[in-house]
Amino acid sequence: MKSHSLHKLLGFTVSIVISLTAVAVGARDITPEQYQAAVDEAFEKYKDVDEGNNADYIPILTKTPGDLFGVVIATRDGKLYIAGEDKYEFSIQSVSKPFTASLIMARNGPRELREKIGVEPTGLPFNSRLAIELYDSRSQNPLVNAGAIAAVSLLEAESEEERWNLVHRNISDYAGRELSVIEEVYKSEYENVWGNRAIANLLKNYGRLYSDPEEALRVYTRQCSIGINTRDLAIMGATLANEGVNPFTSKKLLDREDVPELLAIMATAGFYDESGEWMYSAGLPAKTGVGGGIVAVVPGKFAIATFSAPLNEAGNSVRGMRAIRHIAGTLGVGLYGPNTEE
Ligand code: GLU
Questions:
Q1: In CATH, what number is assigned to the domain containing residue 218?
Q2: Model's pTM, two decimal places?
Q3: pLDDT > 90: what percent of the chain?
Q4: I need a labelling partner for 213 at 20 to 30 A (CA). Which of 127, 167, 290, 336 fits?
Q5: Pocket flag, ligand 1, residue 286 (CB < 6 Å)
Q6: 292 CB less than 6 Å from ligand 1?
Q7: For residue 145, how far is its CA from the centre of ligand 1 (angstroms)?
Q8: What is the pLDDT of residues 139-166, one digit of tens each?
Q9: Ligand 1 center–CA 93 separation, angstroms
Q10: Within 10 A of 192 (CB to CB), how many other CB atoms are there?
Q11: 99 lies in a domain?
């Protein structure tokens, strides 16, 4: 056999093996052992990473111990795989935003979310006032502060208490248990809420806030102060992976046909001005919070949640980002194919 034919044959065989491996990893059910190995490996690999800083513009967040680190997978068939810290309650912060966006979709419909808040990423920091001035939709999308404050204002409610109860009930239902506000976090943030107050007032000025601004601000700040642990967060994500039904309680929270739109917003805006970088390297819709939590969703399959307080410049948890990227790569579940760039 001529050498180039041999090369061709070898190349052909290699590509068959590669394709079969890809099919095997992509289509085969991931076994419990593989899930557990993936969370264990990600935990071990990044637990000693010593980069980033706790958020300090909400003073109490500087007190969260920086060494705590948890990685949890929750599957759509109701299984949990845990490595590291899964009991410590941290404030949900911005990870709450897609879940309140889901509440708007469920109560007001996806069209209202798009028309009254918007669905475009800003490419700017999460608390940008400039974005409100730059873009016609003003609030831009429900995952930045402006859009999230607009979202709580958009809920139809007779009183502040009713507005809060709707938000709180929904997030608790996503977690599958009654969650509480961490009052010290609420106090610490509300006493320093000048930037978000400016956002609420600007939105009101442009006719893009639908309740009293201070009421929306208080309900939004309480929403961000809800305490969750890594396990709760994984279950919340698994509810989106399970087409809007909490796999642990069987409670339906969002119509299955609205889940893709919500995941699309998470994919384009979940990491704020680092969303492009995140999709490039992890390929999964996700949401981060300055309390140190991140949740990523593998649609139709499972969710990965992490908790670690030290953040990078964009406000995203350093260990958490790395752990989720690593798991997505190991299990080959990036939406556009297995990502290889960590
Ligand atoms: N409550 C925080 C704020 O409004 C949330 C920010 C975040 O988690 O990204 O600034």
A1: 3.40.710.10
A2: 0.91
A3: 86
A4: 290
A5: no
A6: no
A7: 7
A8: 899 999 999 999 999 999 999 999 999 9
A9: 5
A10: 13
A11: yes
